[in-house]
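Protein modeling request. Please complete all fields; requests missing the sequence field cannot be processed.
Requester role: graduate student
Desired output: 3D structure, token encoding
Chains: 1
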Amino acid sequence: MSEQVLDYNHKKRAKTPHNIFNMNIIVFHLFALVILFELNLLHWFWLIPTVSLSIMLAQYLYWKSLLSDAESSNQSHWYVIANWSLAIRHNKIVFMAYLICGTIFLIGYSISNGMTDDPNMSNIGMIVFLYLSGNLMLLTLVVTFVLSSGAIWHTNKGEITNALAKIRVGLNRQNIT
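Delivered output (177 residues):
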């Protein structure tokens, strides 16, 4: 990792996507989940992925506009765009985890409701698949949270990690400097 002299504004703008990502995980996947459990509002769990995916979509759209602005006018610094690209990678990991965990849950729902007429056995089957998909999602959220927190730490120091260097090469191919 090499260090580059960046001004405070660049570092602050480069931290923004990671801060948004971490707040998304903390507020919606941690606090909202606990609040819904405590208030026994299990039928409102669909709000968590809906709001989270909406935030990730807004980040993606802003990143695309940042890329198009940089291609046309060269006003954005490559370090800021590279950090947004890194945050989008973290969002893609979480999105893939949503797809995989949702698939596991739907398969479990289909299997547990189709195998037996006993509702108690169906509930046990659903709990097993819910446990599997929930733990996989939790593991993914913890890993991406740590990755994003590390990115914030590197950005505070103005460091260029290997991931940012690779993204910079891709940006240079697109004539974004």
